[in-house]
Amino acid sequence: MANLSLLSGSYFMFFILCLSLRGSLSCLHDQREALLDLKDVLVRDMVTDNSTDLFLGGLETWNSSSECCQWILVQCNSRSSSQEVTGLNLSSLFPLRGKASTVLESVFRIKTLMSLDISYNSLHGEIPRIGFGNLTELAHLDMRGNSFNGSIPPRLFRLRNLEFLDLSVNMIEGSLPGDVGGLKKLKQLSLDANIIRGEIPEEIGNLIELRKLTLPGNQISGRIPLSISQLRKLEVLQLQNNSLSEEIPSDIGNLVNMTTLDLSKNNLSGEIPSSIQKLGKLETLQLENNKLSGEIPTWLFDLKEMKKLHLGGNRLAWNNDITITPKCTLSSLSLRSCSVSGQIPRWLSNQTDLIFLDLSENQIEGDFPQWLAEQNLGTIILSDNKLAGSLPPQLFQSRNLSVLALSRNNFSGELPEINTTSIMVLMLSENNFSGPVPKSLSNIYRLLLLDLSTNSFSGSEFPAFGEDGLIAYVDISSNKLSGKVPAALGLNLMMLSLSQNDFSGSLPQNLSNLSQLEHLDLHDNNITGEFPAFLYQLSSLQVLNLRNNSIEGSISDDLSNLSSLRILDLSNNNLIGDIPPSLGNLTGMIDTPDVPSTLSEIFSFQVEIHDLIVNWKNSKRGLSNRNLDIYTFLDLSKNQLSGEVPPSLGSLKRLKLLNLSYNELSGNIPMSFGDLESLEALDLSDNKLDGEIPGTFAKLQELNTLDLSNNKLAGKIPESPQLDTLIDPDIYANNSGLCGVQIDAPCEEDSQPPESPEEEKKETWFSWEAAGIGYPVGFLSSTALMSAIGYFTVTPLHHRRRHARRR
């Protein structure tokens, strides 16, 4: 790291020297003209807004009557009698926008440039393939934080004087070519967060001056090249979040100057190489979320400079039979899912600098230790263990605690009063906590996430969060809370789950102020009153679940205002009237969303959304916030809805599950339902539907669960490779006159004389083609997807019929 500091310092001193002398310097005429041309491009492309005057003010020094060496953002070489321009720093100071080859055209005329910084702007298009070839003196090139695409041009690897190259946070594709090995002076190479594919070339080992190599967040595959062990001056190696495989090179211990090694989130296997114990300067070792195996070596704790050690999410095992005395002073430790058992290791009590501790997904038992509560950690993650007892009051008096995750343990008792304002994330779900929810939670102005779900909290009072609070996520589902639905929840809330409690009365009008709310789940309470019209104002809503309440009234056309809605469950209420045709305009169920839920962007760790999906064939499954965006779901079952099924529902092309059962719906099943190309489950049972099953059902290649029973349907059941697999007679039971191969009831038209050989041959070919294509695509892929997510299982219909309909 000392060498990196020296490198940065040299550029800083160079910049200061240039500033101190620029008053006496002049630059070449053609270089001044090139810079003025650049100014014209910048001014032309600026957006006229409040900040434009500030930007123009910065350019006022750029004019033909002054020397360019005196201009802001321009550096000149004082050692040259011609006073050449050698540095140009345009990092995030101007709205550089547009195609890079056009914007930078004048820059490429300044052939004496040694340093060019255009980072954090809005340049797009491919990196110019010719222009950079003119800048043969270039030593420092920073282009991160733009929107460059395409591959890295070969000419960039011919800039033999390059010492610093950063192309991070763009959209660069292709592979890293072996030509990179020609940059013999390179000290830093950074390509973070691009779309680089392929393997790291062996020629990377030729960069013997390299101090920092960072390639995280790409799609790099293959093994880590053995030649990397030749980079004896390397201090920082970050290859995390790629698809690297095979073993970590055994000679990685040759990199004796290494201070940071991050190989996390790959597919690396094998054991931790013993040569790592030779890295005496190592401060950070991150190997989590790979497929590493074997016993965790105790010599890791003998590396005296080690501060951050993350080994979780592998197949590694902690030796619980040994006691260690670490020689290092850790600030961050993750042994998640490392087979740690017994009590929390006592040697951690001597790690007085520890800020982050993750021992989740182990078999740790016993109480929460008093010494850990008094250690003033910032993050404590002990979820998915066997810890029990009550929590020590000292835990909630820490001034540093920001994240406390204790979900899925056996903790019990009441929560102590919370006397700290530093907590940002509090996750205590799936324990045995009881008593009231502490009112002191409302004093934590930094609180972002609160998850107290699946406990035994009781009482009718809930902490009031001020309008200026930061809280974005509240889940207190599956408790014994009662009274009115909490109204004071802050204005920044994005997720609210109060389901499976005993809240009663109508919904508070204050909910209409939650303009950022994406997820509202109040199922299984005693909510009464008319369907609240103010919910139609929540335009950001993606999930609305009000099932199993006593809500009355009709569904308004205004529900279509919730254009982002992807999951709507109003089942088992007392709703009446028609289904509004405007529901067919819910664009969240028509198009695949371009961007994920804001919740998934904010919370990088797994956040469970408990019991989100309704009972489908009596099978309950929860979804996590990570896979919400792949589902669209509409359930209006078990109400008193009447009238015809609106054909407009056939527009909901992304709909996977549709349940309109147990209503008073009449008329025909819309032909447009054949356009529900993503539909996997359809339940129209227990209505008054008549007519034939539309022939368009033959197009539903994804359909694998169907219930049309207890209606007045007649005629032939359509045939298709997919429908022909749905042969359970209960699917079509108690209709007036259905026939077809699925229920082994021949239709009259099937008794007609056989077709001509030509027609028979044509039909046989079509059926064979459909059977070969439609069935595997529709049935197998759908079943595999739902099974992989662990969400969808089918319970036989006769089981479901044992359950009485609630009215």
TrEMBL record:
Which InterPro entries does the record match to this protein? Leu-rich_rpt (IPR001611), Leu-rich_rpt_typical-subtyp (IPR003591), LRR_dom_sf (IPR032675), LRR_N_plant-typ (IPR013210), LRR_R13L4/SHOC2-like (IPR055414), LRRC69/RLP (IPR052595)
The transmembrane residues are 773-797
As for subcellular location, the record says: Cell membrane
Q: Which domain of life is it from?
A: Eukaryota
One GO CC annotation: plasma membrane
Task: Using the record's annotation, list all stretches that form the Disease resistance R13L4/SHOC-2-like LRR domain.
Answer: 179-362
| Annotated ranges, domain Leucine-rich repeat-containing N-terminal plant-type | 29-77
- What Pfam families does the annotation carry? LRR_1 (PF00560), LRR_14 (PF23598), LRR_8 (PF13855), LRRNT_2 (PF08263)
Q: How does it sit in the membrane?
A: Single-pass type I membrane protein
Which family does the UniProt entry place this protein in?
Belongs to the RLP family.
Q: What is this protein called?
A: LRR receptor-like serine/threonine-protein kinase GSO1
Q: Which organism is it from?
A: Theobroma cacao (Cacao)
